[in-house]
From TrEMBL:
Its main location: other. Residues 1-25 form the signal peptide. InterPro entries: Bact_metal-bind_prot9, ZnuA-like. This is ABC transporter substrate-binding protein. PANTHER family: HIGH-AFFINITY ZINC UPTAKE SYSTEM PROTEIN ZNUA-RELATED, METAL-BINDING PROTEIN HI_0362-RELATED. It comes from the Bacteria. Keywords: Metal-binding, Signal, Transport.
Length: 291
């Protein structure tokens, strides 16, 4: 029938509400980094809108300073996801500056026993990733109960994908476990431990992680281990380069020791499981093994 009144009146007369023809806004989940944001997206989408702040591998998360746009995102978020462990303190500041009801903040640090000075690169720690996924499913269900079953189903799928990466790592361990490697920064260390690799140059890594120049003794030890070819591979953080690191990488290449670039921000177009899986494959290849 033809409605002789305005559209709004017509909707009311026909027994419809304005909300029935207007897409209801989805809850917003904001992740500090896409490493955790991708896992969140696999669990929360399409029932939540997931936005990651750091998405470019060229960015150094340690030096990042958010602007007003990031502040508005965090202000509007129903859920906030972060690494924690002193890695991204700026997200805590933005969350604390929110007005009104506090947001649910899910940090990887909070699903494990983490102490000051422990490794902050938690996305390579499979136990932490598993616990994070389980916690986030619960938080999504509490923030959006109507889609509780969907969050649970997607969470199971993500945990299955994590399990596949764990199996891949276990198989790799049988090939490369016990090999001696080094790194310029402890980004790669949690994964190296899972693969059974023996990690050297800890003093050098700790200094770089704390953004100070390594002591001369640590530089000399690293240099000597490369010179004498005591290590099978050198991993380095492709996002936080400095002259002392560049010199060691150049020396490793000169001595035909494979170098492995690793990143803190996940390249776009990948899921966490494919990204970590590819990293494991690259390690195996660098160490001269085949799966």
């Amino acid at each position: 029938m033809r409605c002789p009144v305005s559209l709004l009146s017509c909707l009311m007369v026909c027994g419809l509400s304005v909300g029935a023809v207007t897409a209801q806004a989805r809850p917003l989940l904001v992740a500090a980094e896409n490493t955790w944001g991708d896992l969140a997206e696999q669990i929360a989408e399409p029932d939540m809108e997931v936005r990651s702040i750091l998405t470019q591998p060229a960015l150094d998360p340690h030096l990042y300073e958010p602007g007003p746009a990031e502040g508005r995102l965090v202000h509007d978020a129903a859920l906030i996801v972060a690494n924690g462990a002193g890695y991204d303190p700026w997200i805590d500041r933005l969350a604390a500056a929110r007005s009104g009801q506090p947001a649910r903040l899910v940090r990887a640090q909070d699903v494990m026993t983490w102490h000051e000075g422990d490794n902050t690169h938690l996305w390579y720690n499979f136990k932490v990733v598993r616990a994070f996924v389980e916690r986030l499913v619960t938080e999504c269900q509490q923030a959006d109960p109507i889609h509780s079953a969907a969050y649970a189903t997607r969470g199971v799928a993500v945990l299955s994908a994590v399990g596949q990466v764990e199996q891949q790592a276990a198989q790799a361990r049988t090939l490369i476990g016990g090999m001696v490697v080094a790194a310029t920064e402890p980004v790669f260390t949690p994964l190296a431990e899972r693969l059974g690799l023996i990690m050297k140059e800890q003093a050098f890594q700790l200094a770089i992680m704390n953004d100070v120049e390594p002591p001369a003794s640590a530089v000399a030890a690293f240099h000597d281990d490369i010179e004498q070819q005591r290590i099978r591979m050198v991993a380095y953080n492709a996002q936080a380069d400095r002259p002392s690191v560049q010199r060691l990488i150049a020396l490793a290449r000169q001595k035909a020791i494979p170098v492995l670039p690793v990143q803190e921000i996940m390249p776009q177009g990948l899921h966490w499981q494919s990204w970590v899986g590819q990293t494991i494959e690259h390690v195996i290849q660098a160490l001269g093994k085949k799966q």
